[in-house]
């Protein structure tokens, strides 16, 4: 994992308050924006 992905995971992970706001989903080891 790259630091950017780790930060993103912490800020936009499942169960995170920002998850719905950013509309992001976790797919295996990759992150996508809706």
TrEMBL record:
InterPro entries linked to this entry: Cas_Cas6_C (IPR049435)
Pfam families named among the record's database cross-references: Cas_Cas6_C (PF01881)
Domain CRISPR associated protein Cas6 C-terminal: 1-25
Domain of life: Bacteria
Name of the protein this chain belongs to: CRISPR-associated endoribonuclease Cas6
Organism whose genome encodes this protein: Fervidobacterium nodosum
Lineage, opening ranks: Bacteria, Thermotogati, Thermotogota, Thermotogae, Thermotogales
């Amino acid at each position: 994992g790259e630091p950017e992905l780790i930060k993103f995971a912490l800020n936009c992970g499942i169960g995170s308050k920002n998850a719905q706001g950013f509309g992001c989903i976790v797919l295996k080891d990759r992150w996508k924006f809706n």
